[in-house]
Amino acid sequence: MTIMTSLGFSLWSTTFSVIPGVPLGAALFLARFKGKRGVVAILNATMAVPTVVVGLFVYSFISRSGPLGFLNIMFAPGGVILGQTMLAFPLVMAMSYTGLQKLDHRYAETLLTLGAGPWHRVMAVIREGRYVIVQAVLAAFGRVTGEVGVSMMLGGNIRWYTRTMTTTIALDASKGEFERAVSLGVVLLTVALAINFMSHLAVRNVR
Amino acid sequence: MGGRGNPTASRPAFKPGHWKGETMQLTSRRTLVRSAAICAVLLTAAVQGFALGGKEAAAPAKHVTPANPRIRLATTTSTENSGLLAYLLPFFTEDTGYTVDVVAVGTGAALKLGENADADVVLVHARAQEDAFMAAGHGAERRDVMYNDFIIVGPKSDPAGLSHSTSSIDAFTKLAAGGTPFISRGDKSGTNIKELDIWKAAKITPSGSWYKEAGQGMEQVLLMADGLQGYTLTDRGTWIAVKDKTSLVISYEGEAGLFNPYGVITVAPSKNPAINAFGAKAFLDWITSKRGQDLIASYKLGGQTLFFPSYKP
What is the ipTM of this complex? Predict the structure, then answer.
């Protein structure tokens, strides 16, 4: 079922992007170094990279004649998950960073004056800002569920294997079978709305 | 961060001496446990999603399980969109135990996937390109599989008067006079290559607002031609599968030059160790076997045969 395939891919890629993305975002929030503004600007810019560009980039690596060809994940779930992870990672990191700005600045300073080590500080900040982190995670999940470029290019839209909701919609529309495309579109829309709603609830909990 | 009570209230007051001791460790351990729990939930859900997806994929019964049971077939949109592969492949899986992953692109892209070793076997329709592919050493074995023919379809009123054409070249010359849109695949597919060959034979370089390069699959192009009330060149298989969704009719057909043969090529296993050579060979053998050829001939849509088997041992 394409819906389960879609959600499975999205869950994996969100997980893989959150594991490094959230701590790195928090670390960036805490770190003080020259050129930090530049790093933040670049990070924000990477959020806007089109999905097909990410797809193309990953494609050139995981093609069997590319440097990571030995992994044999082209046109397989692994390839889609890798591409979606690349897509979600900057989003998670940037949103974690931006979200944590809402924290009281004195919190990070207090941690510092109390002599907490870097790892402790990162974990404490994540714990303190968990609601904005949840938002970042949900946004990443929403983006990878709704994207079509990476899934189409790296998954190859193989029936029962790498065909996701978005690529099914693209295929059905190209075949002129709009009924199924529309019903899947409704499912996709529901997922997107549910995520936004949950994200909204997460923010409301803070206040 | 206001509200929700004071987040630090539940913890003991910070004492500088205790900082690296129990208090912080307790906090970080709890955080770790929680995040681990969240990850576990996510993973379980994902695994379940996969298990469900996997069940679907494994739905057709298998007799034997080959060492590498997945074959990647790069093919044209015509074999996929006409429904032929969806009809044939369950029989193939039942007979051999191989699952075929179909990547449906244009012939040019399919051959490129073979060249990059991203496909194990290709099923395409552009003889000159196929021969070049073999000559360059990208393929291990090539066989004829089946054929149908190309046709020109267009609006019922036939504004360019194609129905009285004497040949495909004559028909294309009439189209080039302009006025009526012509939708080109524009994607190096087998159909696109055939179209460009005819333009070349007619000594015409198609350009102008009437000539529209779509860059899409055959079905999409047919729907576009319907929307724009223009002409296009199509293979008959896709046309039969799509025609009920359009108001178009066949404007020109039946010339020997519009013959459309399909070939199957296994990609040379020497190109990459990841290539499923056994599976590719099994597919080539099966589709050119009596059973495969009979099944191709038996595939009908609306009472019409779409592809005619053509393998001669």
Answer: 0.75
